[in-house]
Each structure stands twice: as C-alpha cells, then as structure tokens.
Design brief:
The chain has 484 residues and is α/β, with parallel strands linked by helices. It is built from 13 helices and 26 strands. The protein is elongated, with a radius of gyration of 31 Å. The chain starts with a helix and ends in a 6-residue tail after the last strand.
C-alpha cells in the first residue's frame, strides 16, 4: 500500500506527540505547567500579516509609522531601531501603489508622520503622494544606494552607543539582529562581504569610541578583509543561517525575555522585518524556521522556558506541523518557591519582574512574573502579601514583604566592670521602634581602646542601621573592692 507524503507526515507527528505525552506522564507530578501556547499572525499576504502585527502592537493612535517596500529588503533592514525610537510600526507597501492594508492602518492609527524608506525607484512618488493625501507628513530616507539609505537612517538615531554591521546582500542576519538592535538602540549598518564603501568606513571610524561594534556573521558573510577595517569590532554568529540566528540570540540572551518568542520563515524577510518593531517591545527574539526546524533551533527551543510562540505568516511560511512541534519543545516550570523580602519603613519597593524557578530538566531558569500589586505603602510597618502569576504555570507564587519599623530611640547604656576583668561590648542594643515596639538591633562600635588594667570611665560610640544618632555606652572600671 502506498501512502502519500501528507499522511506520512501526519503519522510522524502523531507518534511524536504520543512519545512526548508518555514522557510527561512518567516524569512525575511536580510539573504543573500547560503546553506552550501559539498565536499566529496570518494574513492573506505579507502586507496583511504586517497589518495584523501592527494591530497587535499599536491598538490605539500612533504619531509615527514607517513604510518600506514589501518586496525588496535592501533598504529596509536598518529601520527597526528607528521604529523603536519613534514607537512606530513597520508597514509594507508595493513599489508603485500604496498597499490597501497599509493604507487602512495609517487611517486607523491616525498617523501624523511617516518615514518612507528608500529612493523613488524603491517606493514611488505615487506612493508618497498617496500617503500625503491623508494629511500625513512624509519624510523620505532614501539615498543613492542601500548604504547611503542606511546612513540616513542612522543619522536619525543620533550617535549610537553600539552598532551592528550586517551583510548587505542577504537578509538572514539582518532580521535576526533587528529586534535586538532596536532594543539596544544600535544602528544597523550594511557592508559587502569583501568590500566596504568609503562612506560606511568613514561612519564606523567616526564612531570608533562606541561601546561595541558587532559584526554579524562569520567570514562567509563578512570577510576578515572588511572585519579588520572596523574599529572595536567583535564577531557574533557563524555557521549556517539557523546557527547564526541562534548564536545572535544567545549572545544577547541576558537582555532578552523568552516568555514569548517569534518564529518567522527563513525563506523571506518581510514577516520577520515587520515583526521586529513589535518583538523589541517585549524584548523577544525572532527565531528563523525553514520547511523543517533545524537541530540547532530545536536544541535552542528545548533549552528555554517559553510560554508562547508567536508565528508569523500562514502555513506556507511556517507550517502547521512545525507549529505543533514548537508547542512541545520548550522547557516547563516544574517548581518554584515562595519569596520573603524585608525592607525598612519608608523604603520604596517594587516586586521583581522576574524570579528564578526550577525547570522541567532540573536546571534553574529565570522567568517573568506578573504580580497582583505593583506598589505598596511602606510608610507604615507591617506584613504585605503579593500574588504572582507565571505564564504557563498553574500555581501562584506568593511574596511576603515585611516592612520593618525604624529605630526611634535608643537609651544611653551604662556598664560597670572591675580592673583586669574582660568586658565584651554588646552585639545588640535595645531600641524603641517607630511602631511602639521594642527590638534588639545589631550595633557596630567605633574603634576605640581602653586600659582595662586601670580604673576610670570609658565612653564608646556605636552605629545602628537606620538610627540617625550615635549609640553611647559608658563603661566605669573600678578597683576590686577587697575586704580586709
């Protein structure tokens, strides 16, 4: 009997899900997490997909929008940091006519200003006029070539603290770094594999004091000939498209939030580019997927606690089979502990945005948490309770905050001892607290010496945390009172 390819794929998927389910059953009862959820931004084409991404990130009015050519990435790869600066969505258009989905978004958002990216050969005057007809001010950022356009975009960002240098002839590394560059307010600068225009070299040299210049990709993307001309440069990423994609994400993982991960097709740039402006809002990475997930991508997804996967495009972009597999690859939250914090009265307190949990593989991982309260009045001592929710975890996390009263008054201390007897300064003192209670508080005594073999009166001063006066201890040393 002969099975067609679709039936075989479905059979493989059923077997895969059965194995995963069996593993979950026998792993133990500590894991209470639900499967990773997915959300798909799926339009009839890339233009509607970009519009749906826009609706997700910009539900109300927006002063700014950025419009790029939906079929030509060469001028568009540098725009994500500008989108972040202006809190603007990235929308796509045809070169000759303003796309209807983009037009609708400009109307919905009541946009006042639009950056059109590229020269008139990339986005025509007709498109620009169509935007202006809506009463929108248009600023065109388009040079004689992709390099000049990138420099015009970079100038709008001001002097960057960091720069990402990408290959100008392929989009893979550009869309991988885009949300990260936007998050970190980097400029994205293109170069050729074996050559660099004088204008680009001049720009990089003028920014040689930048904190860091990241050269994205290995020697197959940007040769050492070009790399060696770039000041203060380090390479990020090597290998094939998918390994470079994950290398880039891992290089900045401490600044990313993996609660939500975007997945886009590696076969085209448009979905990933339009999503880069949204992904940076939540510090989320964009993962590239081909017709099948690479082993590098699978291993990455298995190493993170990911609550939601946002898929960009329809089945032709990221297949539904891939979507189902993505639900079961990430780690889950297996266990977490409640939290206790102590602060002094009048100290400000905000619950931590992340906590450390035990993942289903036994490792400790950091995850985001949403609290029922974000502020508390700490002007009054007491005990306050917060309840936190971790996405994808079925139990709440409790945080107990103890607001300690301040020391209000500490009486002077008088002690007596005899000559040659050892006297230990007390480690704690009794304080009357701001809530009327009394407590024993630690004290640190100032450096001082006394001649214990001589009688006399000795004074010591100490410091108690949060007490604005010195603690005074008077020690009277007397001769032994001997009876004849």
């Amino acid at each position: 009997m002969k099975y067609n390819k679709d039936k075989i794929n479905i059979f493989k998927l059923v077997v895969f899900l059965f194995i995963i389910s069996a593993i979950s059953i026998f792993h133990g009862n500590n894991v209470e997490a639900a499967e990773t959820t997915t959300k798909r931004f799926n339009g009839q084409n890339r233009y509607e997909t970009a519009a749906k991404v826009c609706e997700e990130g910009w539900s109300e009015e927006s002063d700014w929008a950025i419009v790029v050519n939906g079929d030509n990435f060469v001028d568009a790869l540098s725009v994500a940091p500008l989108a972040k600066k202006q809190n603007a969505p990235i929308l796509l258009t045809n070169s000759k006519v303003l796309n209807v989905y983009t037009s609708m978004q400009l109307n919905r958002l009541k946009v006042k200003n639009v950056y059109v990216i590229g020269g008139k050969g990339v986005i025509s005057q007709n498109v620009e006029d169509g935007i202006k007809a809506k009463g929108i001010k248009v600023t065109r950022l388009g040079g004689k070539d992709r390099y000049d356009t990138a420099l015009q975009i970079a100038k709008k960002l001001g002097r960057p603290k960091q720069i990402a240098v990408i290959n100008s002839t392929s989009f893979y590394d550009g869309v991988s770094i885009a949300p990260i560059a936007a998050l970190k307010e980097m400029a994205i600068i293109p170069v050729g594999k074996n050559d660099m225009p004088n204008s680009i070299e001049k720009f990089l040299r003028s920014n040689r004091r930048a904190e860091q210049i990241y050269v994205i990709g290995g020697q197959d993307q940007i040769s050492n000939k070009v790399f060696n001309k770039i000041p203060n440069a380090i390479r990020v990423g090597s290998g094939d498209v998918y390994k470079r994609n994950i290398d880039i994400i891992n290089a900045f993982q401490n600044e990313l939030d993996f609660g939500n991960v975007y997945v886009a097709s590696s076969r085209d740039f448009a979905d990933a580019l339009s999503a880069s402006a949204l992904a940076c809002k939540s510090a989320s990475p964009i993962v590239l997927a081909g017709s099948n997930l690479s082993n590098t991508t699978k291993n990455f997804m298995r190493s993170k606690i990911i609550n939601n996967v946002s898929i960009l495009g329809g089945n032709a972009s990221v297949s539904y089979n891939t979507e189902q597999i993505l639900k079961y690859l990430p780690l889950k939250v297996a266990d977490t502990e409640n939290i206790r914090k102590e602060i002094w009265q009048n100290e400000s307190f905000t619950p931590p945005p992340t906590i450390v949990v035990t993942a289903s593989n036994g490792n400790m991982e950091e995850v985001s948490v949403t609290w029922n309260l974000i502020k508390v009045d700490t002007t009054k001592p007491g005990i306050y309770s917060f309840t936190g929710k971790i996405d994808g975890y079925n139990r709440n996390v409790d945080l107990v905050l103890v607001v300690k009263p301040l020391p209000d008054k500490i009486e002077d201390i008088n002690e007596e001892t005899n000559v040659n007897e050892r006297f230990e300064l007390p480690e704690t003192v009794t304080a009357k607290m701001s809530d009327g209670s009394t407590s024993r508080l630690p004290v640190i005594w100032d450096y001082g010496t006394k001649q214990s073999n001589k009688s006399g009166v000795y004074v010591f001063y100490g410091t108690v945390e949060k007490y604005d006066k010195k603690v005074k201890l008077t020690l009277t040393v007397t001769e032994h009172n001997t009876t004849p």
